[in-house]
Design brief:
The chain is mostly helical. The chain is built from 14 helices and six strands. Strand 2 (190-191) and strand 3 form a beta hairpin.
Length: 361
């Protein structure tokens, strides 16, 4: 297989200029220290919020199916917010210089949602962050029979309606991740650009151990606590539908939209841009300077900042997003920015286009 490389590698005049100004900005203020303190405060808040949601389930008796469903939805959304604001930063090492602390925060908060932390880190760090939107390299846009996500994927006749039926497919996103996608990637011989990935036996044991713990926590213990099997199963299912729609509509447009590019390699194996320009071209921000979105979404709305500076705490993104935008304009580079509703609309327009024609970059 031909090795894929960036044009000029990571040598980017744009990024060197940007990095000088950002380092100067952070060096002349206490913005970074303030952001790190805020990161830890948010961690405590979202951990307590999620534990509180679980405590309500077992300490308060729900007398109606509706109240049980609402409790499960609270558990699910608080778990997602924990993942957005804690798991993601911990995986990138933003909480501490101590890798053990980052590891514990990441694995505990992420595995608690039923999704496997180890496997996602393999895909996210080794595949998605290196080659976002590159077909055959970015595991997040792997070809699937339901929805065409890349112009390089084969076009199936029924996908002309994907912008209409995708909402129903998206309803099953998190439950598919927990019960199918994780198992697929555990045994897959190829994950994006990662070939023949052999996982340590320790991680395989932890994989099944965490899955069993998740089922025990979400299904078995509530039934033992006195809730009916039917009510628990219904609540669990609705929780995952709400989780899925929340997750998809706040995150998927950050790479899959009309504005983002899907670069192809040349015959030499080189992508058209350097590494940092590629990150800009394949990312979409929505309201990146918004502290409201940053509070809840862990900086995913400032996606360019995250891909350029993945090790910085997401709480710093509102303070540097404007500088990234200005620097991109100075160098004549793409900087994609919309508001949330425009980004969601752009994603469905992109799906409609992908269902009918091969999209030029």
């Amino acid at each position: 297989m031909q090795k894929i490389k960036f044009n000029s590698g990571s040598s980017s005049i744009f990024f060197r200029s940007l990095d000088i100004e950002i380092r100067q900005l952070l060096g002349e203020s206490d913005l970074l220290q303030t952001a790190k303190r805020m990161l830890w405060r948010k961690m405590i808040f979202y951990v307590l919020l999620h534990l509180g949601a679980w405590s309500i389930l077992f300490l308060l008796a729900h007398t109606t199916t509706g109240s049980l469903i609402l409790n499960y939805v609270f558990i699910g959304i608080s778990g997602l917010l924990l993942g957005f604001n804690v798991s993601h930063d911990a995986m990138h090492g933003s909480f501490s210089k101590n890798k053990v602390i980052n590891n514990w925060l990441y694995h505990f908060s992420f595995n608690l949602q039923g999704t496997n932390a180890y496997l996602w880190k393999v895909r996210h760090i080794g595949s998605h962050h290196v080659f976002p939107n590159v077909d055959g390299c970015d595991a997040d846009i792997d070809n699937n029979p339901f929805i065409r996500l890349s112009p390089q994927h084969p076009l199936r006749k029924y996908q002309r309606y994907q912008h209409l039926y995708s909402i129903f497919v998206y309803c099953f996103y998190t439950i598919h991740w927990v019960f199918f996608k994780d198992f697929f990637y555990l045994y897959a011989k190829k994950v994006g650009n990662l070939q023949q990935k052999n996982h340590p036996i320790k991680q395989k044991l932890l994989f099944f151990g965490w899955k069993a713990f998740y089922l025990l926590l979400t299904l078995v213990l509530p039934i033992l606590a006195g809730y009916s099997f039917a009510d628990v199963l219904l609540s669990f299912f609705i929780m995952h539908i709400i989780n899925s729609l929340f997750f998809i509509h706040f995150l998927i447009a950050t790479h899959l939209s009309m504005e983002t590019q899907f670069p192809e390699t040349k015959s030499s194996g080189f992508l058209p841009d350097d590494y940092y320009t590629h990150q800009l071209a394949t990312s979409l921000d929505y309201s990146p300077a918004s502290r409201f979105y940053n509070l809840f979404l862990g900086g995913f709305n400032a996606h360019a900042a995250h891909h350029l500076y993945p090790k910085l705490p997401h709480t710093i993104y509102p303070d540097i997003a404007w500088l990234i935008e200005e620097k991109a304009k100075e160098f004549g580079l793409p900087y994609n920015k919309l508001n949330l509703f425009q980004s969601i609309r752009s994603h469905y327009r992109y799906l409609k286009l992908m269902g009918t024609v091969q999209r030029p970059n």
